[in-house]
Amino acid sequence: MARHWFRPRDARDDRAAEGPALNPATWQRIADLVDLQRHASTLDFQRAGSAKAQLAGAHASRFRGRGMDYQESRAYQAGDDVRHMDWRVTARTGTAQIKLYQEERERPILLFLDLHPGMFFGTKGMLKSAAAARAAALIAWAAVERGDRLGAVLTNGAHCELPPRGGRQGALQFIRQVVAHTDPRAALDAAHATTSLDSGLARLCRVSRPGSQVFLIGDFAGIDAESGQLIHRLRRRNDVVALQIVDPIELAPPPPARYGVAIGSGRRVLDLRSAPARLAFQAHFDRHHRDVDELMRRHGVALSRLMTDQDIVRQVRQLLAGGIARPLAESLAA
Prior knowledge:
The chain is of the alpha/beta class. It has helices at about 15-20, 30-35, 85-95, 130-145, 165-180, 195-205, 225-235, 275-300, 310-320; strands at about 60-65, 70-75, 95-105, 110-115, 150-155, 160-165, 215-220, 240-245, 260-265, 265-270, 300-305. The chain has 2 domains: about 15-50 and about 105-320, von Willebrand factor, type A domain (Rossmann fold), CATH 3.40.50; about 60-105, no CATH class. The strands form 3 sheets. Strands 6-5-4-7-8-11 form a 6-stranded mixed beta sheet, sandwiched between helices. A 3-stranded antiparallel beta sheet has the order 1-3-2. Strands 9-10 form a two-stranded antiparallel sheet. Strand 5 (about 150-155) and strand 6 form a beta hairpin. The longest helix is centred in the last third of the chain and has 24 residues, at about 275-300.
């Protein structure tokens, strides 16, 4: 059945998307994300031993077939190509045996960015949205470095889908959309409340190809039981890594005071002067991080946390060092 990709939301032209009046800590420019290409060779997110070369079709498939690397022999079946007969095993066992090989195939990299209004928030370092943009761009350039095709699903009120595309042009196409979708001046529109994490994950499940490497990037503020089911569907067919963006205020409440908070177009006051209020504030984030950690662990998804007040390049390099074949649940206290 044919796969249909939705047309990406119209991006602003490059000059408008650069946003010269904004600090890079609030909105990453195209130039900022393109500059990250120089770090691509230092990142390694492939499973150990899976890469055979730096070209398309360079990853070992889970399926047996006619490839280049011998995998095993099995009993001959009607219709098998006799050119692949294993004569030595046949002579030893007395029954006809045929060689099977490890197929090689492309391994698309699929990036998912959840850019709901809460991602346009930050107390130290940079906004969560800016940190997510840098992490995503780093992975995009690493994909280009290794010869993998890059696709994406971005959601911040509407879904933007980019079909997998190889080479530098694929990364640049993705970066332009990231810059357009992380514009904080348009981030808090009321329309952004119409989509959810689950709707984005459902779209991701429909467009992902089996065997892809999927990166989920966001703070997972809307995670729930349905999210777990959707992530489980993704994990059954793909390798999935979750990168949770965390602001320092989620680890410890700010000093006792009254704080003005913008929620969409409205304004509220967060009163943290009392000890019970500060305890409730901390309990909320502790519960959220615990829920995210347990859900990812239950479904076998590697989880890493990126702090907005620390260098994103260094964090991504450390978290992905040595591959991502095993879960990487980190302690929030670390």
